[in-house]
Amino acid sequence: MEQAPRVSLRRATRADFDTIRRWLSRPDIQDWWGPVSATEAEVNMALSSEHGICRMIEVDGVPVGYAHAVDATLWGDSLPDDLEPGTWDLDLFVADEAHRGKGVGQVALAALREEVFATTLAVAVCVFPSVKNERAVRAYEKAGFRWQRVWDDPGVGLSWFMVSRRDDPR
């Protein structure tokens, strides 16, 4: 019987940026997360912010992806007008193909969501997957995120605005 991989999140630091940047330059990650210039800027802002939770996703101690959560107000006016104050934006990707489709992203997403609710006064967390990325939308649905509406994201185009509230049952 194969043992399930041990997924953990560890604090991402500036020392991890070269690895994250290399991952962001890959076409498969850009399909999931968006254009490299925008995502590099996003990661830099998250790493520099005291209102950000930046994590390396590890499997059995080996980095396989990246995740962050930021107070959505960090993004300024480029978010939907109906975004509830106190909402944090979550983003993550699993870069190592060998660990995709095996629940690593689900475990990391759940851990990040729980960390946000345990360490902040966030009322909700949100995600903005591209309408073209059905795999991401389904993963977020499984994690308890609910569709609010389609939103025209200035960086990646039409996206689902999906939310999971603090008091939502999972």
Order of helical and strand elements: EHHHEEEHEHEE
SS-based structural class? Answer: alpha+beta
Q: What would CATH call the class of the domain at 7-123? A: Alpha Beta
**Biggest sheet descriptor:** 7 strands, mixed
User: Count the strands?
Assistant: 7
Roughly what is the average pLDDT, rounded to an integer?
88
Rg of Cα set: 15 Å
Strand content: 25-35%
Helix percent band: 25-40%
| CA-CA gap between termini | 29 Å
CATH architecture of the domain at 7-123: 3-Layer(aba) Sandwich
CATH topology of the domain at 7-123: the name is Aminopeptidase
What low-confidence regions span 5 or more consecutive residues with pLDDT below 50? Answer: none
Strand adjacency order, main sheet: 1-2-3-4-5-7-6
The CATH superfamily label of the domain at 7-123 reads Gcn5-related N-acetyltransferase (GNAT)
Shape: globular
Q: What count of helical segments does DSSP give?
A: 5
Pfam families: Acetyltransf_8
Keywords: Antibiotic resistance, Nucleotidyltransferase, Transferase
Protein name: Aminoglycoside 6-adenylyltransferase
GO molecular function: N-acyltransferase activity; nucleotidyltransferase activity
Explain what you see.
By secondary structure, the chain is α+β, with helices and mostly antiparallel strands. It has a domain at 7-123: Gcn5-related N-acetyltransferase (GNAT) (Aminopeptidase, 3-Layer(aba) Sandwich), CATH 3.40.630. It has 5 helices and 7 strands. A 7-stranded mixed sheet has the order 1-2-3-4-5-7-6, with helices on both faces. A hairpin with a 2-residue loop joins strand 2 (52-59) and strand 3. It starts with 6 loop residues before the first strand and ends in a 5-residue tail after the last strand.
